[in-house]
Amino acid sequence: QQEKEDLQGKLKLREHLSLTAGKSEATPAPSKNIDLEMKQLQSKLKKSNTEITKQSTTIKSLKEQVREKEERIRELQAKFSRLERDLTMKRHLIEDLRSHLKANEVNEKTLNETLESLERKVVKALAEDKKTSIDSLKQRLNVAAKEKSQYEQMYHKAKDELKTKDLRLTKLESKVTEAECGMIELETATSRQLHGLARQSAQALETLRKELLLTSDKVEEFKTFVKTLTRGLHDSVQELRAKIKVAKKMGEMKACKKDLSQEYLQLAASILNVSTTDIYEILQEGDDEETAKMKMGFEKDEEWLQHIQKLLEAQ
Question: Which stretches are tagged as biased composition: Basic and acidic residues (predicted)?
């Protein structure tokens, strides 16, 4: 601003000099040097104006920064005061905690003493419990050993029965193979006979038809025979079961067992697909089990009848 004022003073002085020079001279002819100086001074003035504007903007920004820093300082001071308050509170808390810690240490000592006494008592009680438990375990072990021997005996019995059943199975398999071989031989023989019969006359065909009719009649007779036989077996088994039930209820089970023939028992065993010993065990069980097994036997008998019916109806 001072430079600006100096320049403006100089300009005014130059203008004044030029005016005085123009008045003194007759013809107004301003000198070139004065014009150049004027231009230079004007350019300097412009530069100074721009610098002044820049400086004013920088001053404004600096003032803003100063204001922000003052606000920051106020915030920091408030924070500092809050931290001081927190610090004092924490000190008080630490002192309280120390007092609590001392009290807890005292309590811990008393608790440790009580725990030691309790541990001693518990150890004594556990020792007594262990003795009683060992005695009970020994008794259980003896019982388990007895049960083991019983189960081993049962296992050996079952093994023997399995062996006998395996032998039966092998015999049955050999019979089945023999039957299959016989069937194959029959098929071959019949095929040869059919080839031979195909070459014969119509009379042979008629005789064959008659034979076929006779065989179909025989098949029907066989079917009726099988049906009546199975029905009779079914009825006899049911009667037998009813007799056994009545004999059990009247307390004459032993006499009934003596009266029962081996044929009936074998028949019942073959129908139920079990051994004769199993039938004796079934007869010796309670009423509820007996009724349940009777029902199961009836159901098995019905299934057996249906199976035979299906076999008869099959091709």
Answer: 1-17
